[in-house]
Amino acid sequence: MRRYLEVALGIFTSIGGFLEVGAIATAAQAGAGFGFRLGWVLVLGTVCVIFLVEMSGRLSAVSKHTLQDAMRERFGAGFFLVTTIPGLIVDWLVLAAEIGGVALALQLVTGIGYQWWAFPVAIGSWLFLWKGNLRLVEDGVALLGLVALAFVVAAVRLHPPVHAVVAGLLPSLPPAEGTTYWFLAVSILGALISPYLFFFYSSGAIEGQWDENHIGSNRFTAIVGMSFGAVLAFGVMLAAALVFHPRGIQVERYEQVALMLVEPLGRPGLYLFAAALAVTCFGATLEVALGRAYVFAQGFGWNYTLNSLPKNSARFSLVYTAMIGSAAVLIALGVDPLALTVFSMALTAVTLPLVTIPFIVLMNDPAYVGEYRNGWIGNAAVVGISLLASLIALVAIPLQLMGG
Amino acid sequence: MNLTRDILDQQVVDRTGQRLGKVDGVILELRDGEPPRVAAIEIGPVTLTRRIHPRLAEWLGGWLRRHGPRTDGTLRIPWSKVRAIGVDLRVDLVADGTPARAWEDWLREHVIRRIPGSRQ
Using alpha carbons only, how large is chain A's radius of gyration in Å? Predict the structure, then answer.
């Protein structure tokens, strides 16, 4: 039973942090624009995220510190305050994108414009945090998130050519439109490797009072949970590649993305797409808002817990309330959710090393993880992939903004 | 004991397990002819910000003293109150009513309590 509950944390982290508006949008655009060619980026991102999630759980189980507690303690005040600002901005944009994802799903079903759904969605997700507890949040979203398996069903029904799919798993240079190719590549990495995910996961481990006995199940959860998310994201890319790429359709609106489920699954495909988009983005909304509240509460040393009334952790509750409320304004004003999503994912990629490099330092410090230190493979994979993502993003974002 | 490694930026927890804040500053007492001694630890946003820039800390302190509970929330805890140093720093105090809780209490009474559903 306990193992089941831990896997629920993994699946929820995966649904909310892995497959969400960012992964759906970027994987769909990648499939439409470049067929199976960007498959290797999904693999790279998944490997990196498995290492990082496993590290988050292990750090908390062994050191009894959350990631943010350990970072504040190890790197001090300056590091904490300076890295908090870019993290806050990126999280805020990502949160708006997630709220936009739920709002768009509702627009697809009801025909009422997404701007009108921004505040109802914000209030709904906020109520979940305000009245709910961590268990409800995790299990509810993990269970409902299974609807996202529709992407995999769709991809299988479209009979992907195995040879071409496998070939895409090997890195290749773009045929043309190099800027878009690399911009999408970093957006995918940013969508998969989201810092809020690690803060959230390590806080969940502390709230669940993990210890050294959890190291084995933590590894299992990280691998199974994140691979589950990766399979779903891969389903999105394959379906998009098979439906849009042969016809030369570029995905520029979410309504188009829905078509990739309508072709293989018929009319129900539209509703399945809306449900999958809504549930995964809803989960991500909760996760980003909570992740940021955890970062603040742990960075400053406030009381925090989701398993108690808001009045017992006033500042913590206020952070997620303010985050959700202000991010919803951006969507209500009519900012294009798809453009916002892809852009905020690329920005996430730029800021990745600010979290991953100090994280790696902690995971090699015997004062925190003792004999459970990182191996060189984990160190190399995380540092390599996050630096690569950041460098490509620094070059690709200005080019994409200039060239369009 | 290493002050910056084991004390500075550690979580401070009170007698009842409530989280007071982080050790934002360490205060040393200079003594003639003897080595300096740790006199107290300090918790508070102004102490924290002073480590980035004194001007910024001054501005923040001024703002905090003019708004809400009208205190900058700085709490100085004498070293003699420190009971244990481990994952957290345990102090022989009760968090409620200390300046470290002033903003938390003020926000709870003036903001959180007014939002429906915060109490049950």
Answer: 20
CA distance, residue B107 to nearest chain A CA (Å):
6
Q: What is the pLDDT of residues A376-404, one digit of tens each?
A: 999 999 999 889 889 888 888 887 787 65
Residue length of chain B? 120
Low-confidence ranges of chain A (pLDDT < 50): none
Question: Residue A376, class by beta-carbon neighbours within 10 Å (0-12 exposed, 13-18 middle, 19+ buried)?
Answer: exposed
Terminal Cα distance for chain B, rounded: 45
Q: Note the CATH number of domain B3-114.
A: 2.30.30.240
**pLDDT per position as a tens digit, B57-111:** 999 999 999 999 999 999 999 999 999 888 889 999 998 889 999 999 999 999 9
3-state SS of chain B: helix, strand, coil percent to 5? 35, 30, 35
Q: Which residue among B8, B21, B115 places its CB closest to the CB of A300?
A: B21
Least Cα distance to A107 among A257, A321, A319, A292 occurs for A257
Give the pLDDT confidence score for residue A241 in this predicted structure: 94
Q: How far is A306 from chain B (nearest CA, A)?
A: 12
Q: Are A148 and A276 in contact (CB under 8 A)?
A: yes
Longest dimension (CA), chain A: 57
Segments making up each domain of chain B, as ranges: 3-114
* Res B120 pLDDT > 70: no
Torsions phi, psi for B83 (to 5 deg): -100, -40
Cβ-Cβ contacts under 8 Å, B48 against chain A: 77, 81, 300
Q: Is the ipTM of this complex over 0.95?
A: no
Q: How far is CA A122 from CA A19, A330, B107, in A?
A: 20, 11, 21
Question: Rounded to whole angstroms, how far apart are CA atoms A76 and A82?
Answer: 10
Amino acid at A52: L
pLDDT digits 0-9 by tens, A200-211 = 889 888 888 889
Between the alpha carbon of residue A108 and those of residues A24, A105, A117, the distances in Å are 16, 5, 11
What's the mean pLDDT when you consider all of chain B?
Answer: 90
Rg (Cα) of chain B, in Å, rounded? 16
Maximum Cα–Cα distance for chain B, whole Å?
61
Q: What is the pLDDT of residue A135?
A: 72
- How would you classify the pairing of strands B11-13 and B88-91? parallel
Q: What is the DSSP string of A219-243?
A: HHHHHHHHHHHHHHHHHHHHHHHHH
Does residue B2 have a pLDDT over 70? Answer: yes
Chain A interface with B: residues with Cβ < 8 Å: 63-65, 69, 72-74, 76-78, 81-82, 127, 130-131, 299-304, 309-311, 314-315, 317-318, 321, 367
Mark yes or no for CB contact A81/B52 under 8 Å. yes
Domains of chain A: 2-403 (1.20.1740.10)
Q: Do A72 and B22 touch (CB under 8 A)?
A: yes
